[in-house]
Amino acid sequence: MFKHIKELQYNAKPTQPDPVYAKKLQEILGGQFGEITVMMQYLFQGWNCRADQKYKDMILDIGTEEIAHVEMISTMIAQLLDGAPARDQEEAAKNPAVEAVLGGMNPQHVIVSGLGATPTDSVGYPWNARYTIASGNLLADFRANLNAESQGRLQVVRLYESTTDPGVRDMLSFLIARDTMHQNQWMAAIEELEQAQKAIVPSTFPQNLEKQEVSYSFMNFSQGEESAQGRWASGESMDKQSNFEYVANPEAMGQIPQLQQAPAYIHNSPDPTKPAPPNMESANYDKQN
């Protein structure tokens, strides 16, 4: 059950309207790494969680907080659109859509949402559930969550740097701080899971069933050997099961593929080494030959 209260989690009050910045702010609302994405990702991970209750509770704690962040950013966008279109309103009223385009704002903020936020990114692409990850494997999901928070915090910081509005920066500084906590939170949960199980996902797959001779080989498939200097090329592997091996000139280990000629009715390019089929209905010819 969810219960809404009127107060926002934190203030979302711009100092002055800025329809162009409202368009930019849509990215951290409805973009791939925006608040709608992490909200839905965490909620479905929590609802589907079959592991220890503490993980389910933690996931739903943060998922529910992300609903509050969606509300904050939506409120900020709506207030940034106050006073839009960007130039004189009396002149704009003659054709607000044209005025919106000329002013650099998102015309859908005028035409579609009536000066409100939309579940889209900064170029108007609709939010997509395919952005979300909820696999049922906590270690895999928590690593995805860490990535989402890392990318999300990066985008919020870039938006912070692209405005001087004290009110907008105040809200963004709160979101940046919460993303700091959330990255730490997922790293702590990942560390705990890695200590309880193998670091490689899924940990339940028998390792003797994989081609172990290449399990810890870093293969140099590009020009130069600078990559040999990395932690991934020598020393103990991260899962502590073996040592990394650097392969400077990896050799092909597979066959040369040779595909059979397609049936005549597919009408692929004919095999030049074979006689052309007789001029008859291809389906019948295929059955007879």
Written account of the structure:
This protein is mainly alpha-helical and 289 residues long. The protein has 2 domains: 178 residues, Ferritin, CATH 1.20.1260.10; 41 residues, no CATH class. 45% of the residues lie in helices and 2% in strands. It has 10 helices and 2 strands. The chain has a two-stranded parallel sheet with strand order 1-2. The model has no long low-confidence stretch (mean pLDDT 91). Pfam families: Mn_catalase. InterPro entries: Ferritin-like, Ferritin-like_SF, Mn_catalase, Mn_catalase_C, Mn_catalase_dom. This is Manganese catalase family protein.
Coarse shape: extended
Uncertain residue segments = none
Describe the main β-sheet briefly. 2 strands, parallel
Relative helix content: 40-55%
Structural category is mainly alpha
CATH secondary-structure class of the largest domain: Mainly Alpha
Question: So what's the oligomer here?
Answer: single chain
Total helical elements: 10
**Fold-level CATH name of the largest domain:** Ferritin
How do the helices and strands follow one another from N- to C-terminus? Answer: HHHHHHHHHEEH
Binding site for Mn(2+) 2: 66
Binding site for Mn(2+) 1: 35, 69, 149, 182
Region (Disordered): 251-289
Pfam family, one: Mn_catalase
